[in-house]
Amino acid sequence: MNYTVIDRGDQLSKQLAEQFHQLVANIGFSHQPDNPDLVLSIGGDGTLLQAFQSYTDRLEQVAFIGVHTGHLGFYADWKADELEKLVEFMANAQPTYVRYPLLDIEVQQAKKTTSYLALNELTLKGVDQTLVAQININDELFEMFRGDGIVISTPSGSTAYNKSVGGAIVHPSFEALQLAEIASINNRVFRTLGSSTLLPKHHHCDIISRKEQRLQLSIDHMAITDEDIVSIRCSVSDQKVKFARYRPFPFWDRVREAFLGYEYNE
């Protein structure tokens, strides 16, 4: 199997990456960063988002595994002290593959249109003042927004920024996107729903800039600041991200351990 490793860059993550190279060399794996079948992320969720963005052109061929070296790794199945156990599974067992929905993003600027994929979310904020935007759903006006910003998240990303602004946690088996508001201002000119909104696959939403304004657009770990963003279209992607599982780790177990702080033991 061809593989590559992306680590966070701290000392522990680098040490684990080197250890992994040594361990898998003994089972015949080949380090092929340009053509991997497996991408191992060592660090936190930010590291895995970086790994995902590095291989969006190979999602059909690539599976991801996360090893977390911090206090919380929502996408990671393995802890730092379990690396040898992971390699033992890789040598002797076939993984189960799980696939999570992604977000298609089309950013229209004054002179170009650029497409992106997001594993977690898109966040749009005003830089110098509040964001003023029209929100369309399926090409129909839905609301006029004024406030700090808007978050559009995938189901797996619903546990990130979306949750902190009051959005719902959504199981990744739902092919949906979620629109959540960040500190909306409601008056007789700007009226918003106030709660997060779920859109199914084959629906789309557009965020349309309603004045000249400098905007900060964040897509997973990437940030873009620009004053010529005209509109952003978001929809559920036809592509999915693939994770290789060598042992069960149900989504609700991840949620419980991440946010409630305990493990269940029979």
UniProtKB/TrEMBL annotation:
Location(s), subcellular: Cytoplasm
Pfam families to which the protein is assigned, alphabetical: NAD_kinase, NAD_kinase_C
Residues at which NAD(+) binds: D45, G46, N120, E121, R146, D148, T159, A160, Y161, N162, K163, S164, A183
Enzyme Commission number(s): 2.7.1.23
Residues annotated as signal peptide: none
Keyword terms: ATP-binding, Cytoplasm, Kinase, NAD, NADP, Nucleotide-binding, Transferase
Listed InterPro entries: ATP-NAD_kinase_N, ATP-NAD_kinase_PpnK-typ_C, NAD/diacylglycerol_kinase_sf, NADK
Any one GO molecular-function label of the UniProt entry: NAD+ kinase activity
Necessary cofactors: a divalent metal cation
Catalytic reactions of this protein: NAD(+) + ATP = ADP + NADP(+) + H(+)
Enzyme's top EC category: transferase
Active-site feature positions: D45 (proton acceptor)
Transmembrane segments: none
SUPFAM superfamilies: NAD kinase/diacylglycerol kinase-like
Similarity comment: family membership: Belongs to the NAD kinase family.
Cited HAMAP family: NAD_kinase (MF_00361)
Its job: Involved in the regulation of the intracellular balance of NAD and NADP, and is a key enzyme in the biosynthesis of NADP. Catalyzes specifically the phosphorylation on 2'-hydroxyl of the adenosine moiety of NAD to yield NADP.
PANTHER family recorded: NAD KINASE (PTHR20275)
Protein name as it appears in the record: NAD kinase
Organism field: Paenibacillus yanchengensis
